[in-house]
Amino acid sequence: MDGLGEEADGRSEFEFSRETDASHQIELYDLILDISTSLMSAEPDELETKLRWGLESVGRHIGADRGYVFQAQNGGFERTTGWTDEGVVPWSAQRLDLEEFEWLHRRLERFDNTVVRTNELPRGTHLYELLSSEGVASAVFLPMVDNWSLEGFVGFDVVESNRQWDDTEVNLLRTVADMITHSLGRVRREQTLEAQNERLETFAGVISHDLRNPLNVVTGSLRLAQRDLDSPHVDRAARAADRMEGLIEQVLMLATQGQDISDPRPVRLESVVESAWDTNDTRAAELRIEDGLGTVDGDPDRLREAFGNLFRNAVEHGGDDVRVRVGPCAEGFYVADDGPGIPEDARESVFDRGYTTGGTGLGLAIVRTIVEAHGWSVRVRESADGGARFEITGVGCGRASD
Hints:
The termini are far apart. This protein is α+β, with helices and mostly antiparallel strands.
């Protein structure tokens, strides 16, 4: 054997290298799956620890010396997480201004994976000075993209200049950057939602106690005054107090009905409709329930509130003797009346908070909130009788036959 290009088992150096690379990539792929599972289950207070573990695991596997996450903040990029191998000096830069790596930033904005070798960069440029000062000989930078926006980048680098970055390896590393981007976005949305819920709870507490208690005093005093005085002024004040009480109830409902339905159960729609009709002041209005409403998966109490608001809306605008029909439609159900209807140019805005032609302006906003909490959609059209027809759709997956 001449020792030129042949291994002991008869394979060429090229074949041996190719098999080694394939094995390395399979192991990297399996590692990325493990990291993905870990990040997907990470709570907000443990995400940073798991991110650092992921950077370290990938970095050691590919032979990198450092791994880091820079996130877009305040017109630049700030290092939020990092890992450095033993015996290697960590990055000193905590923040990168755009002018320091303008060339790299342009490539990242195109969502390009970018391999950089410091000795190939023009001397004197900001990027050359930056990487040289950090001891980077070679690096791969991977854009973090969320909703077609550059949110930062993930980087791995080495201090030895002979490191080669294989295209397949770089593409796998891009998957790591995508996972990190998704996890950071998920946690950010969860924290935003939690903060919103806390504000809603505070708001509901103020409405429920700080406003309702003095209103109860006013209402009680007006009731006593009505017994002793026959005055239209007192009667008008009592009606206003009742209206305020109704408004508080609806504001509280709107503040608490926006959460997802976490534990839906089979609900017989006809029973919910009848209950909502019986528990609301429908005066001389007429209700007709069509056959085939069936059963849906949902929250019966919140659905009852939605139907109740639709019935009150029909009476409020269609008069005491309005006729209301409830029946099935494609992928859901509808509530229709023979009242004056809703102009086409107002059919989107009627669901906005505060939109009103005489009521509180919250009833239909509550309807949409409850419907969307179930994962459904609501829209308004003209009914067969010229009135309003509210269609709740997207219910098909939860419907069942009677």
